[in-house]
Write a structure and sequence with these properties.
Blueprint: H1 6-15, H2 29-41, H3 44-51, H4 55-62, H5 74-101, H6 104-109, H7 112-129
Helix pairs in contact: 2-3, 2-4, 2-5, 3-4, 5-7
């Protein structure tokens, strides 16, 4: 039999079993939303560490659940989706801003291999930020970037007019 002091016993009893610490308040709806969105965008492990919750709870919140026993909470799901939509909108806006900064003349100077890498990287970003959205058939949206060709002045026929 192992003997422990009263202080060690009280400390061990107050430690808990890895879940919420004794006396800790419940998470608010907004906190659950942020943790669920962060776990969706990143990893459950990093979200658990950053927000001080268990890995298991971060995983539950990622799936809009308060606990393992509960079904998906529809209010929480809507809040998480709304947060993720805002993040996607900002990411898409940044992507478009970046695309606008790339000049056609600059792209002409880049070799074919680098051009394909640039296109692949940009499509990967777009795919990542829009992967949750699906249409009625369960397919993600297809985005096609189109910029009309702009003719240079050298490409026009010059007609000299005598005055």
């Amino acid at each position: 039999m192992l003997l422990v002091s009263n202080e060690e016993l009280v400390k061990a009893l107050n430690k808990g079993n890895g879940g919420r610490k004794k006396g800790a308040p419940n998470l608010t709806h907004d906190e659950r939303t942020v943790i669920g969105a962060a776990a969706t965008l990143g990893t459950c492990a990093s979200s658990a560490e950053n927000f001080g919750v268990s890995l298991h709870h971060a995983h539950e919140l990622k799936h809009a659940k308060h606990s393992q026993a509960q079904e998906e909470n529809q209010d929480l799901r809507k809040s998480i989706d709304k947060t993720l939509d805002r993040v996607e909108d900002v990411a898409a806006e940044k992507l478009l801003t970046t695309l606008e900064m790339v000049d056609d003349d600059e792209l002409r100077l880049v070799n074919v291999e680098k051009k394909s890498k640039i296109a692949a990287n940009l499509s990967g970003v777009l795919s990542k930020i829009s992967s949750r959205r699906v249409d009625e058939k369960g397919k993600p949206p297809q985005v096609v970037f189109y910029a009309p060709n702009i003719s240079k002045i050298e490409e026009y026929e010059v007609i000299e007019v005598k005055s």
